[in-house]
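Q: Give me a backbone?
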Amino acid sequence: MFDKHAKEMFDEQLESAKNWPACCKDQAEICLAYAEGMASYALIRGDIGHHDFARLNASIKSVRLNRTAKEIREQRLSAA
C-alpha cells in the first residue's frame, strides 16, 4: 500500500472530489485524475500490487459514479 503520507493525500483527493458541488464537475475530475495518477505511479514503482491498484481504482470509480448520480438528481430537481 501507499506510505502514510501518500495514503492521506489519496484520501484527501477523493474527499475533495466528493465535496465539490455537482455544477463543478471539472474541479472534481481534476481531484479524481490526481488520485488515479497516484495509484498508477505506485503500481509502476512496485509500491502496490495489482490487487491494491484495483481496490484504489474501485474507490475512485465509486466517487465518480456517486457524483454522476448527484448531478443527474440535481438536474431532475431543477427541471421539475
User: Anything to note?
Assistant: The chain has three helices and no strands. The helical segments are 4-19, 25-45, 50-79. The chain has a mean pLDDT of 93.
